[in-house]
Fold:
Amino acid sequence: MNPPPTGNKGTIQMLFSDKIVTDYFTDYLVGSWLTSNLFM
Structure:
């Protein structure tokens, strides 16, 4: 009982976009932390 390929592709795209958002948010947090530590 495998789900249709379009369902798999949609799930992969959703996880991929979530990973992009997570990486961006992590970079933002690390950048703001470094900035606050460097300038204080």
In short: The radius of gyration is 17 Å. DSSP finds one helix and no strands in the chain. Helices lie at 5-38. The first helix runs from residue 5 to 38.
